[in-house]
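fyi for ur records
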Amino acid sequence: MIKYLGSKRRLIPSIVGAVESLPGARTVLDLFAGTSRVGLALKTAGYRVVANDHNAYAAALARCYVQADRERVLADAESLVAEFNAVRGSPGYFTETYCERSRFFQPKNGERVDAIREAIARKGLGPELEAVLLTSLMEAADRVDSTTGLQMAYLKNWAPRSHNDLALRVPELVPRSAHGPGEAWQLDALDAAGREADVAYLDPPYNQHKYLGNYHVWESLVLWDKPAVYGTACKRVDCRTRSSDFNSRPRFAEAMRAVVARVRARWLVVSFSDEGYITREAMEALLATRGAVRVISHDYKRYVGAQIGIYNPAGEKVGRVGHLRNREFLFVVGE
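which gave:
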């Protein structure tokens, strides 16, 4: 899967274990799906998963990992991946924007992305198979990028992996759950929260870092709308206007309270961090309105950017990182 700020890779065993501890749980609603790493793990564990995220790239990942079933799409996906791996590069918007105006990718790989993305568009694929191919392309590009994992900036010198040749792979696909087909939605979290499920998993943005700004290249790659861009990082212009109350310190608590109140699930499992806008105690009090709260705590290194340091657009190290570790909390709420 793509490198991702706030990825719950290390928390997967705890999250799946928490859901498995809830008697009779069959359907899980993931309201802030991100890369759908959690949704994929829960689907693999046998649950019917409904994954939601308002960003287009995240919705594509959810259609691939949660909605698409291995038995229905694998053969076609394998054939198309082989076909697209043979496509020769042809420079276009992606190369100009992310290889020449900025330096996220080597031009040879940008040209391949341009050619393969145009080929996907011409195929007129169904939504699930298209999502599988878009996920394959995102992940292939992610393996040859030149960043620390975020698209707020690129490295001053090319990352060693950026010299590798872009190559597609079939994403990890799992069979349909015995409890029914998974679904992928692209809704505001408050709207999605009103859908019924046995368990609701919440992993909201918890500070000022906006996922659209951090992964704007993937948003443009999926939408393929070739937007106007701004700044050194060539961000989409709508990064300036698309916002979330979860990225606002004054509005976070009320946004979280509204979603928690609207959820129609017997249990809630909530991921949060001590880097969030409210304290652990405040989050426990907020969640206690829905039932008893059990807390599982984990201590981790912060994301790779914090380990490397803070740099300005000229590649010069500036400022100091405040701390190198953080605590991740998993709140299990219900009867």
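The first strand starts at residue 27 and ends at 30. thats all i got for now
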